[in-house]
Amino acid sequence: MSEVSTIQLTNFGKLLLEKGITKRQLAKHLGMHENGMIRLLSNPDIKRSRLIQIAECLNETLATLEALVYHSKLQSQQIQDAAAEKRETIVEAVAEPPAVTAEQVSDASESDAVNSDTILPLLAEILNWYRRLGRPC
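Below the sequence we write its predicted structure tokens.
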């Protein structure tokens, strides 16, 4: 089931709950099986004629149900946009690994002993990079 469908079905479910009507009762009123009603309510391209029938059954205006369908699509689009932004942020973070200068590498390799002044900042930078990616360390 698509994201729009899931959101729309949830929004219709809330409306039915407010009205004290089950999907089964609505389906019976419209001469449908309950499974067909669930598919109908989750269809982002629900026909206007069906919306009119549902509005009559729920004692709601057509405009209210059209707004519900519109807001479901809008919510889904906002979620998709937020996910796309997060993906872009991750791609940017991956594309920019921590900068390690030749001087830092040569400083670390000059002695056999661990040089904490050189290694600790490098480790901190690597940890920050992993945190930006959202990866556990």
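The two ends are 35 Å apart (CA to CA).
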